[in-house]
Design a protein that fits this description.
266 residues, 7-stranded mixed β-sheet, 12 helices, 7 strands, globular
Length: 266
């Protein structure tokens, strides 16, 4: 269901960009209880939204007992930080509507792929900046955890290289989540393939190292084989492509288990 208008009523002007945006909600079944929520941010190099990283991912998490949301954030030529503001506003919106949506406000998670993973990592690390932009309290828009699938976090990632065009040196650091990791950053689960040529595996390794230095909660999985953009890595998505380690698909079960452990530890 499209909840864009209700979302915009809470954050007027949030989609007032040249490419706009939308927020869809897939309610879960929680008789007498409250569900965790998952906000999905598809990839597409900030030039499009990859469908195989959007609704199909929402369905997978919905089947695991999550209330799911898909945010189609603004694309180029719209510039940063409108995408960060939209993602963090969506997190705040989910928390604000938690009672009505039968959602546990302490279990609001985000998952992103490629450019969406860059955006998800920024919600985990730059939420204070977004809160200031939105005029809300930082804790309202900080996710309880983030799943980062083939992350773009350093300047040599193709996704970020394109974003850096026309930015001043002072603005460049604003789009590099690795520069904003602090002890307040949200926990993250990362997975990557060693063969990724679009977002080299160093993006995940260096980001995990920044988390280690700050003694933050994180988990990192690197698979030997597989190209960029595998999403759920299920047969209906990858077909009969060669040189893909079927173990890559295990990231979904692993991240689901990690979220459960994370919820118990908080």
């Amino acid at each position: 269901m499209d909840y864009s208008k209700l979302f915009e009523s809470h954050f007027p002007g949030i989609f007032d960009t040249s490419t706009g945006g939308s927020l869809k909600f897939y309610p879960g079944d929680a008789p007498g209880g409250k569900l965790p929520a998952m906000l999905i941010l598809p990839g597409g190099a900030y030039q499009c939204h990859a469908d195989h990283e959007a609704e199909r991912v929402a369905e997978a998490w919905h089947d695991r007992g999550y209330a799911t949301f898909v945010l189609r954030y603004s694309l180029r030529p719209d510039r940063w930080p409108c995408q960060l503001n939209q993602a963090c506003a969506a997190i705040a919106f989910i928390r604000t509507m938690a009672e009505e949506f039968a959602i546990d406000p302490n279990k609001v998670f985000v998952i992103g792929f490629s450019a969406g993973s860059h955006l998800a990592s920024c919600t985990a690390t730059c939420f204070e900046d977004a809160a200031q932009n939105l005029g809300i309290k930082p804790k309202l828009c900080r996710p309880n955890g983030a799943i980062l699938c083939y992350l773009a976090s350093v300047p040599d990632a193709e996704v970020i290289t394109e974003m850096l065009e026309d930015l001043s040196p002072d603005d460049m650091n604003a789009v590099l989540p690795i520069e904003h990791v602090t002890p307040e950053s949200a926990p993250v689960f990362l997975w990557h393939t060693a063969e990724d040529q679009i977002c080299p595996v160093e993006n995940a390794i260096l980001f995990a190292e920044a988390y280690r230095k700050n003694r933050l909660k994180f988990e990192l999985h690197i698979y030997a084989y597989g190209y960029h953009g595998l999403s759920l890595c299920t047969p209906d998505i990858i077909g009969d492509q060669p040189n893909i380690d079927p173990r890559v698909a295990t990231w979904f079960d692993l991240s689901d288990g990690w979220l459960k452990e994370l919820s118990l530890s908080n």
